[in-house]
Amino acid sequence: MELEPESFENPLVEGLERLPVRSTVLVIFGAMGDLASRKLLPAIYNLAHEGALPERVELIGISRGEMTDERFREHFRESVDRFSRRRPDQQVLNGLVENVRYVSGSFDDTDLYARLRTMVEGLDQDFGTSLNRVFYLSTAPEFFPVITGNLGESGLNQAEDADVRVVIEKPIGYDLASARAQNEAVLTYFDESQVFRIDHYLGKETVQNLMALRFANALFEPVWNRNFIDNVQITAAEDIGVGTRAGYYEGSGALRDLVQNHMLQLLALLTMEPPTSFEANRLRDEKVKVLEAIVPPTPDEVALMAVRAQYGSGVISGAEVPGYREEPGVAPDSRTETYAALKLYVSNWRWAGVPFYLRTGKRMTRKLTEIAVTLRPVPHLAFQNTDSVGIQPNQIILQVQPDEGVSVSLGAKIPGTKMRIRPVQMEFHYGTSFMSESPEAYERLIMDAMRGDATLFTRNDEVIALWRIIDPILSAWDADTSSKIPQYPAGSAGPHEADELLEGCTWRRL
Amino acid sequence: MSEARWAESDTTPERIETALRELLRERHAEDENLVPARVLNLIVVADREWRGEIINRLERVGNNASRTIFCTVEEGRNRIDATATVSGDTADDGRVGVLREMVEIELGSSHMSRVDTIIDPLVVSDLPTVLWSPHSQEEAVESLLGMVDVILIDTDDPTYFDGPGAALTRAAELIDSNVYVVDLAWLRTVPWRERLAGSFADPHRIAALQSLKRIYVRYDPGSLVSAVLLVGWLASRLGWTPGPLDPAPGGAWRGTAARGGGGHISLEFEPVYQPTRGIAGVTVTGDSGFSLSLDRSPGGMTAREQRAGARPRQWRVLGASRGETGILGEGVRQALLRDQTYGPALHAARSFSP
Questions:
Q1: Closest by Cβ to A22, choosing from B202, B211, B318
Q2: Which residues touch A316 (CB under 8 Å, ≥6 apart)?
């Protein structure tokens, strides 16, 4: 008796570390771009190396420049040779690139999509069944509506007996209005279940470990609320300057570049309620709920809860470096912030009254991403707090980079005849307990998109919830064209103006 | 690379443990970014004459083990000699450097019956403890079973077991003794299991899974157990009841399995020489003109598919071979995971024995 495909689960899947994925045609728009060259093509190679790609995966690169398939294959090889996290196995690489195809064309040219459709349908025919389709938009955001619109108009947004998905890179919008417009444009032709908005931060092992730490340990959850937590600081500091990204960064700034997506995602994962399951929509429901509990500032409140600044010249690692306005490609009178600090409150039962401090900046003392959760002091001190630095509130530090791990500060007795207390660190480094190499975030995310697992992707209402918090700050900053932008010396911990955001605490030392 | 070494003749477990603690304290005092790895304890018990080969294999394990306790066994030795080494990459850029500990203990066969009393004081408490005894030091294994969480075996290894039937029986005994078994022969089937499962992820093939009528496995002559475990896995997942295999010309084996809903599946195992151990290829054939072959080839596998009324198709399935050099490291990594499908596959594979 022939069973219908839907009538039973594949029993061979049970127990496998790598779950199977249906054969797929992966189309990369912007295949010659920086992101594709540095991240996507090497990630695809590494997936092939590990045998993780579907039984058949057909790759089609699309870009504006005229090029032969052979030249694109060379480019693919060069990208893998240069940026892969492991030295490529030439036999695997040969096998991967030999069937890669290239299609040139302008993204607004309807003929491009007609040719693409012919090519994809030809692959279906060759395989004898419909391949799943993943359209990866590794392009500037202004092309997202153009490409999704043309995919829809040409009928490539759906396929008989196959799943069609579209992967969209950040930034999703430039502000709340443009994010809404972009979502509407994409959702005109694709159902939300087909759309995979990437924030590659969510693909990092350590970010996922944040959920494991919170929800797989009974130790932390009882104190994870306003009764025990005094404040939270989330830091994403970089020691590098704007480098060659001035063109992009001038139009973006620190708030859009890091806070609106990565840092608010960390905040959401840190503060959300436990989801009933780690199914994509259950998890994203909880993130949206907590993001919607963050009250956006009114125009008058912006100055009290947000600080922006630019790095000036200074010294990093013993070498003098220029200030932001002296960097190539940056306007001498630029008002783009390279530093942003925010004070946010989550207005719900669990977190009411707890300040969440977020700061990010370029050209700071060192590269560091961490979440520092400071607990309230003990209610009564039985010891004399003298002859030592004294008892400090406990802190739980979740380190994202450079060393991934968790440390907890505890008060401990200093050896000797007196009862003197000082803080000590209890540390856990992921590197000492899990020696295997983590995959790159893009490897995980590409596989998840092929598999249709949206858990680590951002849903449209989540995007809107994120922008809703940031938009009033951007508007206030944009409207203010005259006040002086605070400066901080390169190599420092940021501007002193940011200290004024803090209530009864100081910024953690970088 | 930072390395510190301690050695002593006629020593005791207590003195070895004290030396290890002191070496770790010294390393950390020298550089506070040097911290000990805390993944698992790996206990290795092997014949003294194979020391060099075992050391080579351990070097290829990679970074998975934290504290390795390597016991070499020599006939007639009564004294315990030991060396302890703590080594690791020094930290740079403010990142932590991870230290690994290696203890090598020279023992005699007279120590084997209570070798647990020598090794137990040396393991890091609360870490999973893994035992690998590549030369069938059964007395040592029995002594250590009560203190280890995982045992690494290779049921393909002819020096370890007296034939495939005995190997599968021993693996089943170990499972019954409540220790988690990581079988390297089973790990050799991983790419084949993943690819077979992936092949039937495509909806046009999944129905064929219920109507398979022939499984034909090609294997390296040293890997018959891997081959029967692969088919044992199919049997356990698909509800087949295998019967004993009969020898066939050319060293091949043939048999059948009864399908749950009625009917039989023909099973064929054929040895083929290849440069590495493990499976060389597998063909699954359905009753409606469908067949799918996967064969080891450079850079992955070659897939060939035949469907009724369609032209044959061939393509390459990508994946780098880990080879035999990587299999022990993979075994150590698997010691931290739990695969619930090995036991049923082993049970089914044991039915192939006459």
A1: B202
A2: A239, A363, A490, A491
Which of B318, B321, B342, B346 to probe the A interface (max A CBs under 10 A)? Answer: B318
Which CATH architecture best describes the domain B190-320+341-350? 2-Layer Sandwich (3.30)
Question: pLDDT tens digit string along A231-242?
Answer: 999 999 999 999
Domain at A378, CATH number: 3.30.360.10
Residue of B nearest to A94 (CA): B299
Answer whether residue A254 is part of any domain.
Answer: yes
- Across A73-94, average pLDDT: 95
What does the pLDDT look like over A157-201, one tens digit per residue? 999 989 999 999 988 999 999 999 999 999 999 999 999 999 988
Q: First CA to last CA across chain A, in angstroms?
A: 67
pLDDT digits (tens, 9 = 90+) for B254-306: 999 999 888 999 999 999 999 899 999 999 999 888 999 999 999 999 999 99
Mark yes or no for CB contact A22/B310 under 8 Å.
no
Would A488 be classed as within a structural domain?
Answer: yes
Q: What is the 3-state secondary structure (H, E, C) of A108-166?
A: CCHHHHHHHHHHHHHHHHHHCCCCEEEEEECCCHHHHHHHHHHHHHCCCCCECCECEEE
Q: Do B300 and A95 touch (CB under 8 A)?
A: yes
Residues A215 and A66 in one domain: no
Q: Which residues of A touch B310 (CB under 8 A)?
A: 128
**pLDDT of A508 higher than 70:** yes
Mean pLDDT of A99-112: 95
Across chain B, the runs of DSSP E, i.e. the strands, are 2-8, 34-36, 41-47, 67-74, 81-88, 97-108, 129-132, 150-153, 180-183, 212-219, 241-242, 246-248, 252-258, 264-271, 279-286, 291-297, 300-306, 313-318
Chain A residue at shortest CA distance from B286: A2
Q: Which residues of B touch A92 (CB under 8 A)?
A: 299-300, 318-320
Show residues of chain A in contact with B326, CB under 8 Å. Answer: none
Q: CB–CB of B207 and A161 under 8 A? A: no
Nearest CA in chain B to A97: B318
Tell me if A180 is assigned to some domain. no
**CATH, residue A55:** 3.40.50.720
- Tell me, yes or no, whether A43 and A148 share the same domain: yes
Nearest CB partner across the interface for A89, out of B62, B320, B339: B320
**Cα of A438 vs its chain's centroid, Å:** 16
Question: A335: closest CA among A279, A401, A253, A273?
Answer: A253
Complex ipTM value? 0.89
Q: To which residue do tokens 């009764």 refer?
A: A227
> Domains in chain A: how many in total?
2
Q: Are residues A146 and A249 in the same domain?
A: no
A177-181, A495-499, B305-309, B339-343: least confident range: B305-309
User: Can you give the residue ranges of every domain in chain B?
Assistant: 2-148, 190-320+341-350
The H-or-E segment that residue B171 falls in is helix B163-176
Q: Is the pLDDT of residue A230 over 70?
A: yes
Q: Is A200 a catalytic residue?
A: no
Domain hosting A366: range is: 203-439+457-501
> Inter-chain contact B35–A21, Cβ cutoff 8 Å?
no
In a domain, A413, yes or no: yes
- The residue length of chain A stands at 510
> Least CB-CB distance to B299: which of A18, A91, A366?
A91
Q: Do A5 and B203 touch (CB under 8 A)?
A: yes
Query: CB–CB of B320 and A432 under 8 A?
Result: no
Residue of B nearest to A127 (CA): B313
pLDDT > 90? residue A391: no
